[in-house]
Design brief:
Blueprint lengths: L2 H11 L3 E8 L5 E2 L7 E2 L5 H6 L9 E10 L6 H15 L6 E5 L5 H11 L6 E4 L12 H12 L9 E5 L2 E4 L4 E2 L8 E2 L7 E4 L2 E4 L24 E5 L8 H7 L4 E6 L7 H12 L3 E6 L14 H4 L2 E2 L5 H13 L4 H10 L1
Parallel strand pairs: 1-4, 1-5, 5-6, 6-7, 13-14, 14-15, 15-16
Antiparallel strand pairs: 2-3, 7-8, 8-11, 9-10, 11-12
């Protein structure tokens, strides 16, 4: 071995190794031209994504894998389970320091929160995506991917759970939500605020997550082959009371209500939800509002109706947590505790 090869080997030995799992989404989107708003998600493969960011190799040793190739609106529970299994298999290797997942932005917060709850490792799981397709003029995906790898390779990212890195911002996936359909600054973390920032690979952290996650939670996928069906019902003026019964008839084991205001809904709907709750269906009150807590036994008598409140979780994340609670055999009281703890 030449002196140059020996030096290169020593340099690699001190570098992090990051595995990138590509799942599709807008970051891998392809349009007819560089100024066309219409595009097809998940058309660009992992090798092309990496070729667009040659400087990424300076951050870490990179492994790329085309795990899936879908728009995130088509991400399923089954894909979540496979993704968690794949991440665990990577973390079983001593040489993998972090994982990056390229993902569509539509459901990134749900996939991220699922992984935040079930991955049993302190090593970072980082999600990233893009608001403009790969073929777009001034595509945002390459720099988002660069910053995501810089976080996944950073030892200080350990113990912070799953992180969404996008538009130079770091979000705890528990707190983040998509707030715009088209803006580059599409994601916000109302309430707790940003976890940190990443600017051209320079990473800064502002805080730690305060709720249980990853190695700090008892939620597990051991023996779980599927996630129970949980439906989200959207509350509105004159909401139909029969939606709850229809949901149960179609196989739902749990219901999350995206309530108005502080998780409210019409009286007729409350009566129907109490009926299904009395039959063992776990019903969670969340809110369609962007931020804020849903209080237990406030305007709604949750004890009398047999309901659970979501605390700070929005409807889509409440669905994820409720699915995992039901998969782990939790009853209503344990589910309520889980919403306060996670």
């Amino acid at each position: 071995m030449t002196q140059h090869q020996i030096q290169a080997s020593l340099e690699r030995a001190g570098r992090a190794r990051v595995c990138i799992l590509a799942t599709g989404g807008t970051i891998a989107g392809q349009a007819a031209s560089d100024v066309d708003a219409a595009y097809r998600s998940g058309e660009v493969g992992i090798e092309t994504l990496l070729q667009a960011v040659p400087s990424i190799q300076t951050l870490a040793e990179i492994e790329g894998e085309q795990f899936a190739q879908v728009g995130s609106q088509d991400v399923t529970d089954a894909l979540w389970l496979r993704l968690a299994a794949r991440i665990h298999s990577l973390f079983d290797r001593d040489d993998v320091d972090g994982v990056v997942i390229t993902h569509g932005t539509d459901t990134a917060e749900e996939t991220g929160f699922f992984l935040h709850l079930v991955i049993k490792s302190a090593r970072p799981v980082v999600l990233t995506g893009a608001m403009r397709p790969a073929s777009s003029l001034s595509a945002d995906g390459p720099l988002n991917l660069y910053n995501a790898v810089s976080v996944a390779a950073d030892p200080a990212a350990r113990g912070r759970g799953a992180i969404l890195v996008i538009n130079d911002d770091l979000h705890c996936v528990r707190d983040v939500t998509k707030a715009s359909t088209t803006d580059l600054h599409a994601f916000v973390s109302p309430g707790p605020g940003l976890l940190g920032t990443a600017s051209f690979g320079r990473v800064r952290y502002f805080r730690q997550p305060t709720r249980r996650h990853t190695i700090f939670t008892e939620l597990s996928l051991t023996g779980v082959d599927y996630l129970p069906r949980v439906d989200v019902l959207y509350a509105h003026a004159n909401m139909s009371a029969d939606l709850a019964r229809a949901s149960v008839a179609l196989g739902a084991k749990g219901i999350v209500v995206a309530g108005v205001g502080n998780g409210n809904f019409p009286s007729a709907a409350a009566h129907a939800l109490a009926e299904v709750a009395s039959e063992g269906i776990v019903v969670v009150r969340s809110t369609r509002a962007l931020s804020g807590e849903v209080f237990r036994n406030g305007e709604v008598d949750d004890d009398a109706l047999g309901l659970v409140v979501s605390d700070q979780l929005n409807p889509q994340k409440s669905r994820v947590l409720l699915q995992l609670c039901l998969a782990n055999g939790m009853g209503r009281e344990a589910v309520q505790d889980a919403f306060y703890l996670h």
